[in-house]
Amino acid sequence: MSQTEKVSAKEYLAKCKKAAVKGNVIAQNTLGFLYLNGQGVDRDYTEAVRWFEQAAQQEYREAQYNLAIMYNLGQGTQQDKVQGAHWMKRAADYAYAPAQNALADLYYKGEGVELDYVLAYVYWELAEKNGVKDIEHKKSEILKKMSLEDIENANRLLKDVLLRKSDQLSGACRNYFEALKSKAQDVKDIGILYYKNLGLDEQTALIEIEKD
């Protein structure tokens, strides 16, 4: 199979399942998306949660983020804002910008966590530094509600995260990506399948699949 060969949704699903069962976190996360969106299979939120959780338990940050959303919305599982916040924080601590932004929202609203303007501000700052757009208006609004002490604490915490703990944070991220890389290297005769799915603009899903 060539790298750019397109396959039917059902064929893609079968290959994705094969890789997911073997523990491939990228495949598990993508399989969750297929069930979530009903591509190549009937829509099944419960199955989506199951596969997101398997990848999330292996510290795959995108899956942790997706699982958090499922818990927050109560899709495929009982709504549980505390569990949603738990998984959102796991993803955010891997420097996953969408999760940092979403976690800040949770701290700002006090959903699944205690309301905390300091942490909300810090995570919005981190999300912005990691590429999330349109954060400035959120920071502007929260600053109106923060005391001078809150602002000082937020800036001190942010400085601590960005400076003193930068090596620790970057090290965790390096370990994360090295773990994914080693998974791919351990599989012999890898076939790379690119498949534009889920209508995510120009993004593509990359699955490492053992050839038949």
Structure description:
With 212 residues, this protein is mainly alpha-helical. The N and C termini lie close together (10 Å). It has helices at residues 9-21, 25-37, 45-57, 61-73, 81-92, 97-109, 117-129, 136-143, 148-164, 166-186; strands spanning 190-195, 205-210. The chain has a two-stranded antiparallel sheet with strand order 1-2. It has one domain: Alpha Horseshoe (Serine Threonine Protein Phosphatase 5, Tetratricopeptide repeat).
Helices and strands in order, then pairings?
Layout: H1 9-21, H2 25-37, H3 45-57, H4 61-73, H5 81-92, H6 97-109, H7 117-129, H8 136-143, H9 148-164, H10 166-186, E1 190-195, E2 205-210
Antiparallel strand pairs: 1-2
Helix pairs in contact: 1-2, 2-3, 3-4, 4-5, 5-6, 6-7, 7-8, 7-9, 9-10
Proportion of residues in β-strands: 5-15%
Distance between the termini: 10 Å
Mean pLDDT: 80
Characterize the largest beta sheet: strand count, sense, and whether it forms a barrel: 2 strands, antiparallel
Helical proportion? 55-70%
Low-pLDDT windows of residues = 183-212
Number of domains: 1
In angstroms, what is the radius of gyration? 19 Å
Q: How does the overall form come out from the CA principal axes?
A: elongated
CATH architecture: Alpha Horseshoe
**CATH class category:** Mainly Alpha
> Structural class given helices, strands, pairing?
mainly alpha
Give the strand order of the largest sheet, numbering strands 1, 2, ... along the chain: 1-2
Number of strands: 2
Number of distinct helices: 10
